[in-house]
Amino acid sequence: MAKAKKTEAEAEAPETEGEGAPKKSFLSKKLIIMAAAGLLVLGGGGAGGYFFFFAKKPHEEKPVAAAVKPPAFLDMPEVLVNLSSTGSGRAHYLKAKIVLEVSDQKIAEEIKPVLPRVLDAFQTYLREMRQSDLEGSAGLYRLRDELTRRVNLAVAPSKINAVLFKEIVVQ
Predict the structure, then answer these.
(1) Residue at 164 is within a domain
(2) Residue 16: pLDDT band by 50, 70, 90 thresholds?
């Protein structure tokens, strides 16, 4: 019986090892699959984190603006006018050197033939101004806006961008 038990034990041992071997292989395959899945999850998370935090963001395509041409400038003759007085005995004068800003040289050439009309608009408007109308920067901004409006009326359909003062003296 001891032999029978030993034989049975021996017989069971190889069977256990035989059955255990497939179990070990099954467990090792399962372990490898779980490890690979874990690495895949960690790698995917790492790659996602890298792209989220460190990778350059793709820039949106913005429409490319056409090259902006530099403006052209047209010098006006110097303007000297006496200002409207409020009854005081002393006359006040305004002397201004004005430049017209236009979008390109072609428009400047279109404006040159009508410069007498522009100068007339300047003279008639400036003669009605009082010295108090030109005080401070707000007075000069109002003057600039009004002269720009009057020039655009005189040179229509052409258009200027701005009236610029090279020099302005009130005396």
Answers:
(1) yes
(2) very low
Cβ–Cβ under 8 Å, residues 161 and 101: yes
Residues 18 and 101 in one domain: no
Phi-psi region of 40 (alpha: psi -120 to 50; beta: other; left: phi over 0): alpha
Mean pLDDT of 138-162: 93
Token reading at 119: 């100068």
Q: For residues 79, 159, 73 and 93, what is the CA-based torsion angle, rounded to 10 degrees?
A: 10
Is there a single domain that holds both residue 32 and residue 78?
A: no
How far is C-alpha 103 from the chain's CA centre? 21
Q: Burial of 98 by CB count in 10 Å (0-12 exposed, 13-18 middle, 19+ buried)?
A: buried
73 Cβ contact partners less than 8 Å away, ≥ 6 residues apart: 99, 100, 101, 102, 108, 164
**pLDDT at position 57:** 63
Instruction: Single out the residue in 11, 36, 62 at which a domain terminates.
Output: 62
Asked if 88 and 161 sit in the same domain, the reply is yes
Q: Give residue 54's domain range.
A: 1-62
User: Using an 8 Å Cβ cutoff, are 99 and 52 in contact?
Assistant: no
76 plus 48 within the same structural domain: no
How far from 151 is each of 7, 14, 93, 133, 155, CA to CA, in Å? 121, 111, 22, 20, 6
Same domain for 93 and 127?
yes
